Every structure is written in structure tokens, then in C-alpha cells.
Amino acid sequence: MKTLVVEILKDAAQWKISTFYKSESIGHRHYSIWKASESNIEVLCSDIFSILNRVDFEGKVTANSLGELRKSSHLLYNQVFPQEIKEELHKTDASHLIFYIDEQLVRIPWELLYDGSNYMCNRFAVGRIVLTSSKIHSESIRSIQPKLKMLTLCDPAGDLKKAYEEGIVIRNILDKAKEKIDVDLRTTDVELKYALKNLKEYDVFHFAGHAKYDKTNPAGSGLVFKDASLTADQIAALSGSSSMPVLVFANACSSGETEQWEIEPAQNIRIYGLANAFLLAGVKHYIGTFWKIQDNLSMEFAREFYTNVIKGKSVGEALRLSRTKLIEKFGETSLIWASYMLYGDPEDHLIFIDKEEKKRKIVKIRIISGICFAFLVLIGIVTHRSFFVDSKPKSEIKFESFKNVFYVDTSGNVTAHDVMAIFNRNIALKKNVYSSSEEGSTYSAINAVDGSYESRWSSVHKDPQWIYVDLGDMCAIGQIRLAWEAAFGRYYFIQVSNDARRWKTVWKTWHGTSGKDVIDLKDKDVVGRYVRLYGKRRGTDWGYSLWEMEIYSKILPNVAVHKSAIASSGDGYYAAEQAVDDDMGTRWGSQYLDPQWISIDLGSEHSVNMITLFWERAYGKRYKIQHSNDKKDWVDACVINNENNLLNTIYFETPFTARYIRLYGMERSTKWGYSLWEFRIHGIKLP
Fold it and tell me: How many Cα atoms within 13 Å fall on the side-chain side of residue 250?
């Protein structure tokens, strides 16, 4: 392993830049004086961050934006390095690269410098080490132990399903190296005091959830918990005699964002965000992100990182390989690969692999694998069955049209939400639950919906048995996940009901197994308040035993297409029916007056959980969504205050039942009328 160090120190208006290899031991080294144009550098940095923030809902940019990123990053590369440094970078055969940088230069995206062929972070395993005038509590830096203790806090605020899943994924990966690392997983509704009390007990800390960066007050930046945030100034205050973790991986939006680090004359120290705070407190390695990241992609990145760690890769190489893997998997336009930076020596390892032991294991695995494969081939010949099946997962619902939503809760309050936080949340979590039996108070039904994989429901040891969840109201069911303990259901049904008496079977299996069963109902119109697992036959001599029963909702189809529509005004080219013709080239337009309305007749009662409005430039600034069963008595479902948004997605936590849906405009945004390209109503016809 060979590590090149690029040292950049700022001295007034000029920089001192040098390169050397980490292994070198010499009494002096040459540096170059470089009068960098800081104004040009700031413009290019701003350009790069602007491009990075163009990512769409899936974390992608266009090919043109990717081309702009290369150009700006290459210009920045030429701005920050003189020719002799570029020549050294070009000819080096080092695998690792350390940017040893002045504290005033931390905002530069060193990892994304482009040399004309490669970004630094894709060519090298890159790390940053910052020369700072702030006092770092190096006396409390922890040494790496033969067996590590790891704290994994995922979805502590309880509203990011993918962050919750990330915790399960990481635990499962690291369980393969139990002799090297012991994982303590905590998820859902974790309070701040737990982190403050326990953080310094661990060697590694992984966080997946919400983070906030406060540009006006970076010390107030923080990691979000159920009740409060762990702020940067609180983190810095944790320094002391006991050690902080060796590695902190904050897998959250903008967890590495910062301004330049400088001590102000009037202060002994100032905190410049999460990375700065953790490092000053004595953390040896910190991994954070430049900007907003997508939950599903960040989970994949964490998966790859820890997979590489347990293979014995260095921290920097584990990051580099993760970038490479995600580019292969999602393409270079999916910019998750560019999202992460590492503070600390990239050459360091968390886990060391004994090469001789590894060789012995490989030989053993090959022998066993050969025997098993021969056995499987023999069975295949006898039974004429193929062992090679298409394991490609079914496609997920795409959310491109629903980036942000107005979220209407059960009390009618309206807040802004990210759609992934809505449709990727477990709606069974901590709801009322009932079962046919319980194997003692330790194994009560409530354990199956408490969000913990450390508690479970277990029935008595006979058939049949059941457990059902009361979701509180009618919900559209998209997916059910059953995490079985060893005592699983072999033959069981999934049923729904509106009254917990009359049950409709929507799915069943005769071949249940232990582990996790994922039941996909997205292609079926499944709506109900109560969801029941009805076990007909056990898979063991024990009862039925579930760690968790998770339920996820889905987007229902647009039921307004070509339905009857009337409006307070509008005809000819702008008739009401043009808002439900499924044609984005036609529209309804009203008179230039307040109030105005448009009403859709669905033909019969429907359960509705979402409405999408595609406005023309003359949008409604303030309006109501109302519903009725007789066109006389209208019930207000919500009042929307719309600030210059031409796509309004309104999601109802509690679906409502109605035949007629009306948009009632109270205030226009322009001097013109109300104008809609499309009025979509997402629901299902009730029997």
C-alpha cells in the first residue's frame, strides 16, 4: 500500500504546496508557492455544488449536468494545483491519497477534482487531514481494538423507513464478522439522552437518519433524534478523558457540509458543523456527505462500505470501492458516489484479516462448495428441476411525479413532506394489535409492531392462530413484511377487513419459511382498516412467532380519468372535462374571479388517499379540497396554502370515502383565473 500526501497550507494571499509519500522519512521537503485565485476557486466551488444539487428524486442528474461537473471540476483542478503538482499526481502509482489541508480550505471539494481522466475519489482512496489552530483532544483518541463495539442508530426520529432498513442491512452484514465486531442496533424513536449517555462506550458509531446544517450558526447543526438534535456544540463538549469512537459514519443529508474553519479573535474556539465538532472531540475518522442524499442510495452505499470493511479493506479503499460499485450499479449520473468525504487517514483499517487464516477458510469453502455443488447437480438430474431461477426483484412504484407532498394528518393539519418518507414508512408501527393467543406476557402481540427485532409475538403451540393490526382507518396496502422467528407459519393467509369480522383473503401460501417473507400487493387493489395474518398450519412443533409484522401503503390509481366534471365557469377550449381527459395538452380555465370551483363525479363511492393537481401558470394560491356523497353537503378535507408550486400532491393519512370531489378556489395567484392541466384522484372503488 502506497500513500501520496498533498500538503496545502495557506499563507496570507499565497499557498505553499508540496507532495511526499507517507513512508518517506527525510529532514526536509520542497514546496511550491502558488498564488491561487481564491475568487475563481469560490466561483468554481459554487458551480460544482450547484450541479450536485440538481439531482432529481432518484438522485440522478442529466448527462449534460454530468458534463458540466467534469468541466468545472477540471477547471478547479487546474486552479488549485501548479504544474509540478499535477505532474506528480499524473505519474504516481500510489493507491491512497491524503489531502493535508489548511483549515481555511476545507470547503473545497478535493475529492471531486478531475484530472482530465478521473476524479480523485475514484482514482485513489482519499482522505482529508486538516491543519487547524483549534485544539483537538488527541489525548482521548481511541485505539483500534481486536474486537470492535459498534453503535448503529438508524431512523432515530421514526420517519425514514429506508434508514430503518439500513440498520438491519448493516447488522446482517457485520454479523458475518462477529469475531471482529459486535453490533448494537437501535432504531425508531431513539431519544437524544441515549446517544449522549452511550456514544463514548463504542469504537464505531453509524448514524442513518435526518441531519441539519445551519449555515448561519454551524454550531447548531446536528443529528436529529426523536425529541431533539445532537448539535455540533454538544458533540464538541463530549471531549474529555474518555475516548470518542474511532470512526463516525453520519449517513445523512449534509452531514459533512461546512464553511472554512477559523478561530475568531473574540472566541477561543468556534464550531463549523458536524465534521468539525466530531474531529475536535477526538474522533479519528469521520465520514459525512456534501449535500442531500437519497435514502435508498445511501443505504446501498453503506451496504457496500461495510461489506468492504469486513473483507479487510482500509477505510479509504472501502469508500472508493463503494463509489465504484454504485457507479456500476446505478450509472455515473447517479451522484451518490460523489456525495461522501472522509476526514482521517484513508490507509487505516478497522478490521484486520489474517492472510493465512483467510487462505485456510477459502480452501475449506472450496472443498465444501465442490461437494455441495456435486450433490445439487445429482439431485437436479434425478428430479429434472432447475436450480437457476430469475431472482430479479419486481419493479418498485416510481415516484417521479410526487417529489414533495402536502401531508394531511388525521386532524386535518397540513405539513410539507417528502413522498419517500410517506410511502416508505411502516404504517403498522405501534398500532393496536390483537391475537388469538400469546405464549405468556413476554411474547405479547404488541411486540410484533413495536419496531424492534429484539422482541416478538409468539402463540400457543396449536393450529389455527391469528394476529391482526388495526391501522386506524381505511388504507391502501402495497406490501407486507413478516419477520419470522424460527417458529414460522407454513400455510397461512393474509386477510383484510373493514370491521374486523368479515375477512377477505388477498394472499396465501403453502410454502412459508423462517426468515423474512415479503408479500407484494402492489398489483392488487387491497384496501382495508384491519390486516390479519391467519395461520392454518405451523412450520414447526412450536407456535407462530413473529419479530415484526410491517405494513406499507401505496399510490392508488387515478380514478378520475374521463369521469363527469363540472365547474363554476369555463367552457369551450377550457371546459371542466379537460382536467380529467388524461391529456397534459388541454386544460380547464375559470373566469378571472374568486371564488371558483371544479367538481368530479366518480360515479360511486371511492376510498381516496391522494390527489394530484397539475396547474398551469395561473395556479390556486389558497384553496380547499372538499368531498360529498350528494353534491349538497360538502366536507372540507383540507385547506392548502400553495406558494408558487405548479404540482400539488396532497396525501391523506386517513383516506376518506366519497363519490364527489371538489377543488374550491378561494384565492388566485395571478390576475387570471384558476387553470388546471389535470385533476387526478387516487383511490379505489368500494364494493
Answer: 37
CB 297 within 8 A of CB 334: yes
The set of cell numbers assigned to 256 is 459533512
Q: In which residue are the cell numbers 501520496 written?
A: 4
**Cα torsion angle, 258, 260, 261, 267, sign:** negative
| Cell numbers describing residue 506 | 388477498
How would you classify the pairing of strands 596-615 and 647-668? antiparallel
d(CA 323, CA 318): 9
Taking the CA atoms of the chain, what radius of gyration do you get in angstroms?
29
Query: How much is the pLDDT for 659?
Result: 97
Interior angle at CA 113, CA 326 and CA 124, nearest 5 = 55
Strands 504-509 and 404-408: unpaired
Q: For residue 603, which amino acid is it?
A: G
Q: Which grid cell sits at 438? A: 400469546
H or E, element range at 359? helix 355-383
For residues 168 and 548, what is the distance between their CA atoms, to the nearest angstrom? 12
d(CA 169, CA 606) in angstroms, rounded, equals: 38
Residue 197's φ and ψ, nearest 5 degrees, are: -75, -35
Distance (Å, rounded) from C-alpha 618 to C-alpha 624?
Answer: 16
Amino acid at site 135: K
CA pseudo-torsion sign 517, 521, 522, 528 = negative
Region 56-64: what's the mean pLDDT?
84
User: What span, in angstroms and rounded, lies between the C-alpha atoms of 336 and 56?
Assistant: 12
- Cell matching residue 182: 459486535
* Amino acid making up residue 151: L
> Is the bond into 146 cis (omega within 30 degrees of 0)?
no
Enter the pTM of the model. 0.54
Residue 249's pLDDT is 96
